[in-house]
Design goal:
CATH superfamily: NAD(P)-binding Rossmann-like Domain
Distance between the termini: 36 Å
Helix content: 40-55%
Bound molecules: nicotinamide-adenine-dinucleotide
Structural class: alpha/beta
CATH topology: Rossmann fold
Order of helices and strands: EHEHEHEHHEHEHHE
Largest sheet: 7 strands, parallel
Strand order of the largest sheet: 3-2-1-4-5-6-7
Number of domains: 1
């Protein structure tokens, strides 16, 4: 129960890693407010968790929506200790096919969405000397072919994490990023487009050598650790949880 009486917001909690993070934080004793664009899905997750969880419809790409979930959390629980930015979208495609609409969608959710949430939450996190955990990706540490917008957005999340960690170190707010390799979630079950060199994508993902992708719970364990006081000396880290994919 490392997070007893802590108050946490988790985005992207209707599915995959976000859902696993919500369950893990609640198990560790936190009161959580969970948001997702899939309002019915996040409601069902909150129902499954029980009294510790409150669900809210959320579009992280919308500044007002991001501010609303933070304001509601503070109104409900009197403050905020932990922000977990997990919501994200993947868009596989040849660079020639990534038009401005597709580029903007990925950047606005994966990168601007993290900015919106951090910006709204920061004054409250300063009050409680809290922590942020951002979901980046192995694609935020190395390039992944046919993932131009996604890789750019996740490199951006790593850069934002490092800059904020330095800027808010005096206020005692810790900001870290987690960089998973492949994780078994609906995101990676989308069929890739046919006009890409899939073998090239495979070669860039060493989890395939072991034949194994991570479970969402593997990533949630790292998020909970970074959010807890066990990680009190860790800030500005981009933490790979990738089975060695980015090791060399
Ligand atoms: N699955 C992987 O292999 C993998 C690897 C590295 C990083 N990640 C990252 O982990 C995070 C979670 O991904 P996942 O694999 O669980 O995917 P997922 O598709 O299962 O879950 C993503 C969730 O984010 C929500 N979402 C999307 N856009 C949103 C928005 N604008 N506002 C609020 N919610 C929104 C979706 O509704 C969904 O519930 C993402 O940031 C993803 O980039 C995933």
């Amino acid at each position: 129960m490392r997070l007893q009486d802590k108050v946490a917001v988790v985005t992207g909690a209707a599915s995959g890693i976000g859902m696993a993070v919500a369950k893990k934080l609640a198990t560790e004793g936190a009161k959580i407010v969970i948001g997702d664009r899939n309002a019915a899905g996040v409601e069902a997750v909150a129902d499954g968790i029980g009294a510790a969880a409150t669900a809210m419809a959320l579009d992280v790409a919308d500044e007002g929506s991001a501010r609303a979930i933070i304001d509601r959390t503070v109104a409900l629980h009197g403050g905020l200790d932990i922000l977990c930015n997990i919501a994200g979208v993947l868009d596989f495609g040849r660079f020639e096919d990534i038009d401005r609409r597709r580029w903007d969608r990925v950047i606005s959710v994966n990168l601007t969405g993290v900015y919106h949430m951090c910006h709204a939450a920061m004054p409250h996190l300063i009050e409680r000397r809290g922590a942020i955990v951002n979901m980046a990706s192995a694609a935020g540490l190395v390039g992944v072919p046919y993932n131009s917008a996604y890789s750019a957005s996740k490199h951006g999340v790593v850069g934002l994490t490092r800059a904020l960690a330095l800027e808010f170190s005096k206020e005692g707010v810790r900001i870290n990023a987690v960089c998973p390799g492949g994780v078994k979630t609906p995101m990676v079950q989308q069929a890739p487009p046919e006009n890409i060199d899939w073998q090239m994508v495979m070669r860039s993902a060493s989890w395939l050598d072991s034949g194994e992708m991570a479970e969402p719970e593997d990533i949630a364990d790292t998020v909970a650790f970074l959010a807890s006081s066990d990680a009190r000396r860790i800030t500005g880290a981009a933490f790979p949880v990738d089975g060695g994919q980015t090791a060399g």
